[in-house]
Amino acid sequence: MENNSKKVKRTVLSSMEEVISLAKKYCLEPEFYEKAAAALKHISKTLNLTKDEAMLLSFFIEMSSRSRIWISGIAEMINVSNIRMITMLNVADGLIEKGFVTSHATGKDERYYSVPANVVNSIKQNLPVTPVKMTDLTVDEFFDRLGEIFEDDDILFHDRVEMLENLVESNMHLPYCKTIEKYNLSSVDYLLVNVFASRLINEDDDIIGTHNWEDYMISKSLVRRVLRSLKNGTSQLIKDGIFETKVDEGMRDPNYYHLTDAAKEALFPDIELVESTEADDKHLTSYTTFSPKHLFYAPHIQSQIDRLAELLQQDQFKNVTDRLSENGMRKGFACLFYGSPGTGKTETVNQLARMTGRDVLMVDVSQIKSCWVGESEKNIKATFDRYRKYVKEKEVAPILLFNEADAVLGIRQEGAQRAVDKMENSIQNIILQEMETLEGIMIATTNLTCNLDKAFERRFIYKIEFERPTLEAKQQIWKAMIPSLSDTFAHSLAKEFDLSGGQIENVARKRTVELILSGEEPSEEKIREYCMGEMVNSKQDKRVKIGF
């Protein structure tokens, strides 16, 4: 009988499948190499590998869906001893050097492997495999590789430093690599310089905070030691003029650092660095990031919000501030939004920003307060300096938002003796002074008004109370958050549960998650269960209130 079937064309992937099948059957005995010879030859020829590398790469590809590939896992897959596979570690090193596989270490001095996505995808699609090049790189290629080293969160400190050293040593033709080697840095300082360089070149970020590098360190204690040495000037990076503290309007900000001009000239003579006049824009949240959101207020609250929104329109704002200045009055507007958590204070600020085209500079009070004596005061001054700079430089002044400001707007302690009380009094005095000369818009949100210092109360021109929603408002919120609810069920939920707008949104999010996971709309009983969960440990306010 004549066989008319066409011969199937061999691919790298089909050859690897054959290698895997034979390896499982013959457990790397001599018969395996005999029967897998054609497949191994095709793989090695196509990818320019040795036959042992072709075999081991086949095993790695078979397990490439795993984030961590262990040599012991490969041994188990093909039913051979761990010792047999350990003898092939030098073969794995060859695949690493050629860019087909990457290696990672654990805290137990164990090593696992992974296959880069580009290698896997190329083999699956029968496309030429182009391993990531690590030597003789151009400037652009080098900094691309440098950035990739900081993308993998699972790499241990010493392994990351080793990868950086290998990358630098393999590209000594580049000025950056020559210079950083001349610095003769410790491992920690070596890593920091590379972090700063990578962020400057790859992300145009010249102001580096602790959050940009702390995850690369061995421990939190090391992070604290490094930060302390930077702050007090004992770090070799400071002494050698490689790093310097960020200065804003003459004020030192000890939480942010950058490469000095001298270091930039030495490290990047072949790169044209563009100095941005608005380098600090990273502190601003653009008004374009706020999505439109329908908020529900009582009529008397709505009228106040509408009035404020009208005032903050740029043409109107400029007209009003000019008139105030002509009459010898303060030009700035300080507003206080107060009320229970979840009633929409912060979201209202976001929506005002969106409607009036104003970016937001949000003050994180927890970051302002520092355990370092004198640093908290410097931090708050730096914040107001930064804001003044924005007001001067930008056509439309941003909103300065003190969110959850209870901690800094409370009643000052008379005759304070404790260092903490003295610090808080000092911070409050600075804020009061700054509010006197404010040019722009400051909005503070707070949950607690009974503890508000009278001096602050007098300085807020607009004070708007955000109350819990009425029955009617809650029903509207339920319908807005979950349009599929019937009017009857929405009314029932509004009547049965005294939830704020924020709490209702939490329930709506839980419902959406359940819908995504199960593909089914949660039952009314389930929705009620979510509502009960929002009421845990909360003291229900039985007063009839209005707001979002």
- Beta percentage is 5-15%
Q: How many H/I helices?
A: 27
Per the CATH scheme, the topology name of the largest domain is Rossmann fold
Strand order of the largest sheet: 6-8-9-10-7-11
Major sheet summary line: 6 strands, mixed
> pLDDT under 50 segments (min length 5)?
1-5, 539-548
The count of β-strands is 11
The average pLDDT score comes to 83
The name of the CATH superfamily of the largest domain reads P-loop containing nucleotide triphosphate hydrolases
Tell me the distance between the termini.
Answer: 82 Å
What structural class do you assign from the helix and strand content?
Answer: alpha/beta
Percentage of residues assigned to helices: 40-55%
The name of the CATH architecture of the largest domain is: 3-Layer(aba) Sandwich
Note the overall shape: globular
Rg (CA only): 31 Å
The count of domains is 4
Provide the CATH top-level class of the largest domain. Answer: Alpha Beta
What does this structure look like?
The chain has a six-stranded mixed beta sheet with strand order 6-8-9-10-7-11. A hairpin with a 5-residue loop joins β1 and β2. α1 (12-26) packs across α4 (51-62) and α4 packs across α7 (89-97). It is 52% helix and 10% strand. Residues 1-5 and 539-548 have low confidence and may be disordered. The radius of gyration is 31 Å and the shape is globular. The protein contains 27 helices and eleven strands. It folds into four domains: 12-124, Arc Repressor Mutant, subunit A (Orthogonal Bundle); 139-275, no CATH class; 287-466, Rossmann fold; 471-534. With 548 residues, it is α/β, with parallel strands linked by helices.
